[in-house]
Specification:
It comes from Aegilops tauschii. This is Receptor kinase-like protein Xa21. Receptor kinase that detects X.oryzae pv. oryzae protein Ax21 to promote innate immunity. Following X.oryzae pv. oryzae protein Ax21 detection, undergoes cleavage, releasing the processed protein kinase Xa21 chain. This protein is an alpha+beta fold. It folds into two domains: 93 residues, 2-Layer Sandwich (Phosphorylase Kinase, domain 1), CATH 3.30.200; 230 residues, Transferase(Phosphotransferase) domain 1 (Transferase(Phosphotransferase), domain 1, Orthogonal Bundle), CATH 1.10.510.10. The chain is built from eleven helices and nine strands. Strand 4 and strand 5 form a beta hairpin. It starts with 7 loop residues before the first helix and ends with a helix.
Length: 380
């Protein structure tokens, strides 16, 4: 019939396109199913707990069990049956009379529901019901972390005979790495980046091994894929940006939340942890501040170590003991303070990314421990 032969190339290309579309669609569907399964398992693990059980666990929310008070509520120590085992827990009760407390409760639920990381507080269960007076009641139940918060360890001096309650250089560096790891997880390894919005020492909790866990996600929010299409409300919970001294300066201008806002807070936390000075302390004056205080000290090598808050044990060490270790420590402290200054720069674009800060801190720790180990070997 003298017809042209059928084109096999076109059909092959169409076939390949179909295979690719089916493969990609199957992969996406599988990912969604896996995420759904994970969230379902988490939800099953975190079954809601009746009000009566929490009241009984805390002895009626007795004052002797009160371990902390925050912007949106109070935290009580209690003993609760979890998976047929009696465990010590921290019960965060929201003061629903406080403006935006309900939004804070929802923010923590959303943030921690599918989050799993060794440097985050672990949520065990929730309660959203009525109390014995038929009033709305909302609470979150967390794993109890026995060593309090980082603010206490920095600013409440240890007793002379209780050096276990003092953080030495390597202890502070380890905590700095823990907190950076938690932030890196939220910023880089979640379906949508999570912004903490209120990172500070009092929201950093320590477990029995002095491992740090980031906590209090009452102001946290997910960063949308298209921030330009997300208009924030002009008032209320959506405008809250953390604590004075730790909140990024651009938030004071009404700018939207961003990852680099958390980086600023982390930089301030890092400087506070190693200097022992609060960012809102009056000793600097309004024109200076903690960031500039450290920045100026770093320009004069002899002043760098004067910034570092030594423990009583470190102060008692003799010049002979410090001979080699002091040189290593000065280099370590200088590098850490440099990172703190880089993270807390005023302009967001000038700040170090948290993943880079984490990498640098881990390198500093490894190098410091390697030098200490070699010194011990040579002394033997």
């Amino acid at each position: 019939m003298k017809l042209p032969p059928c084109s096999t190339n076109a059909s092959k290309k169409l076939h390949l396109k179909l295979i690719m579309i089916i493969s990609i669609s199957s992969g996406v569907l599988l990912l969604i199913v896996l995420c759904s399964i994970v969230c379902l398992l988490v939800q099953q693990e975190e079954q809601a707990t009746p009000y009566a059980e929490l009241a009984n666990a805390t002895n009626g929310f007795a004052s002797e069990n009160l371990i902390g008070v925050g912007s949106f509520g109070s935290v009580y120590r209690g003993r609760l049956a979890i998976h047929d085992q009696q465990v010590i827990v921290a019960v965060k009760v929201f003061n629903l009379q406080q403006r935006c407390a309900s939004q804070s409760f929802l923010a923590e639920c959303k943030t921690l529901r599918c989050a799993r990381h060794q440097n985050l507080v672990k949520i065990l269960t929730v309660c959203s019901s009525m109390d014995f007076q038929s009033q709305d009641f909302k609470a979150l139940v967390f794993e109890f972390l026995p060593n309090g918060n980082l603010d206490q360890w920095i600013h409440e001096p240890a007793e002379e005979n209780d050096q276990d309650k003092a953080l030495n250089l390597i202890g502070r560096l380890s905590i700095a790495i823990d907190v950076a790891s938690a932030l890196d997880y939220f910023h880089q390894h979640m379906p949508l980046p999570i912004i903490h919005c209120d990172l500070k020492p009092s929201n950093t909790l320590l477990d029995s091994d002095i491992v740090a866990h980031a906590g209090d996600f009452g102001l946290a929010r997910a960063l949308p894929k298209d921030p330009s299409g997300c208009l924030e409300k002009s008032s209320g919970w959506a405008t809250m940006r953390g604590t004075i001294g730790y909140a990024a300066p651009e938030y004071g201008l009404g700018n939207k939340v961003q990852i680099l806002g958390d980086v600023y807070s982390y930089g301030v936390l890092l400087l506070e942890m190693f200097t022992g000075k609060r960012p809102t302390g009056g000793e600097f004056g309004e024109a200076l501040g903690l960031h500039k205080h450290v920045q100026m000290a770093l320009r004069v090598p002899d002043r760098t170590t004067s910034c570092y808050q030594r423990t009583k044990m470190e102060e008692k060490q003799t010049p002979q003991t410090l001979a080699g270790k002091e040189i290593i420590s000065i280099a370590c402290i200088t590098s850490i303070l440099d990172i703190g200054v880089s993270c807390s720069k005023e302009t967001p674009i000038d700040r170090m990314q948290i993943r880079d800060a984490l990498k640098e801190l881990m390198k500093i720790k490894d190098k410091f421990l390697m030098h200490l180990s070699s010194m011990q070997v040579s002394s033997n």
